[in-house]
Design goal:
This protein is mainly α. Helices cover 54% and strands 0% of the residues.
């Protein structure tokens, strides 16, 4: 994710901070998980489910 050109410098710093915290604590806050999901979508590593329609 850090190598993706889709992330700016501030987003890369946030990803590194979250990774560092996770290595020390083994836990993530909900906001950290949300940030990682968002950055993963920006980087093209995760699908954008909000753009998809669900069949009933």
């Amino acid at each position: 994710m850090l190598a993706s050109p889709a992330l700016d410098a501030a987003q890369r710093i946030r990803v590194e901070a979250i990774a560092s915290w996770y290595r020390r604590s083994g836990d993530l806050l909900d906001i950290e998980r949300q940030d990682l999901e968002h950055f993963g979508q920006l980087a093209g590593l995760l699908p954008h489910y909000a753009d998809q329609r669900v069949a009933a």
